[in-house]
Design brief:
Layout: H1 3-10, H2 15-24, H3 31-44, H4 72-81, H5 86-102, H6 108-113, H7 115-132, H8 141-151, H9 160-191, H10 203-227
Helix pairs in contact: 1-3, 2-3, 4-9, 7-8, 8-9, 9-10
Length: 229
C-alpha cells in the first residue's frame, strides 16, 4: 500500500484507532506514515468528536493531546500557588484523559483518591507512550511514583522543625508536579504535531489557586508564630 492509499485509509479510522496505529508503528522505518498518522490525529477533532463511555467529549482545550499536560508557565504558577496540591488535579485529569482515549472503565476519581498508591500505573503508561514514540525523556515509573508518595506525606506538630519539614515537603511536591508535567509535554510533542499547549486556566484550577493561597497564609503564620514565641 502506498502512502497516498494509506492516507485515504486513515480517514475512516476512529481517534483511538489512530493512536493505536501510531503507538505501534516503527517511526524510523516508516517516517512518512508516522507523519500521516500525526496529521490525522491533529485534524480529527475538526471533523468528528470522540465520546468516551462516560460522555466525556474529547473536544476542548486539551483535545489535541495524547496525554494531559498544562503549559509550562501555567503549571509552574499553579504548582507554586497551591504548594504542590495542583498535582492531585493534574493526576485526576490524566486519568480522565486515559479513560477517554483507551475506552477504559476505570474510575478517575478513585484512582486519584488513592493516588499515592495508584500513580505508578499512570506513570507506567506515560513511560510506555514515551518509549513507543521515541520521546527523549528519562522517566522511571517506580521512581516517579515514589516521589509522588513522599511528596504526599503529611506531618503535624507545633515545633519549628516540624514546620520546616512541612515546608520542605511542599517545595518537593512543587518540583515533582513540574517534573511530571514536563515529561507529559515532551511525550505530546513526539506523538502529535502542534499539540495543544493548554494555556487557559479553568475554574477548578482557580479554586485550587485560592485554596493554595489560604494554605500559604496558614503556613506563613505558623512560621511567624514559631519565631515569636
Amino acid at each position: 500500500m502506498n502512502d497516498e492509499s494509506y492516507a485515504e485509509k486513515l480517514k475512516h479510522y476512529k481517534l483511538f484507532e489512530l493512536r493505536e496505529a501510531l503507538s505501534g508503528i516503527d517511526v524510523e522505518k516508516y517516517p512518512e506514515r508516522a507523519r500521516l498518522l500525526r496529521i490525522a490525529i491533529r485534524d480529527y477533532n475538526d471533523t468528528e468528536p470522540e465520546i468516551a463511555k462516560d460522555g466525556h467529549n474529547l473536544k476542548g482545550m486539551y483535545a489535541n493531546q495524547a496525554v494531559f499536560a498544562k503549559s509550562k508557565n501555567d503549571n509552574l504558577i499553579l504548582s507554586i500557588t497551591t504548594l504542590g496540591l495542583y498535582k492531585t488535579l493534574w493526576i485526576y485529569k490524566s486519568w480522565k484523559r486515559y479513560k477517554a482515549i483507551e475506552k477504559s472503565d476505570i474510575s478517575p476519581f478513585w484512582r486519584t483518591f488513592f493516588f499515592p498508591f495508584t500513580s505508578y500505573y499512570l506513570f507506567r503508561r506515560l513511560k510506555k507512550s514515551a518509549d513507543q514514540n521515541h520521546a527523549a525523556i528519562t522517566i522511571d515509573p517506580i521512581v516517579l511514583a515514589a516521589l509522588v508518595f513522599i511528596s504526599s506525606a503529611n506531618i503535624s506538630g507545633d515545633s519549628i522543625i516540624v514546620t520546616c519539614i512541612g515546608l520542605a515537603l511542599a517545595v518537593f511536591s512543587i518540583v515533582t508536579s513540574v517534573f511530571m508535567n514536563n515529561q507529559a509535554i515532551q511525550i505530546n510533542s513526539k506523538i502529535i504535531t502542534d499539540a495543544n499547549l493548554n494555556e487557559r486556566i479553568t475554574v477548578i484550577e482557580y479554586i485550587f489557586m485560592i485554596l493554595g493561597i489560604v494554605i500559604w497564609n496558614v503556613l506563613a503564620y505558623a512560621i511567624y508564630a514559631q519565631f515569636n514565641k
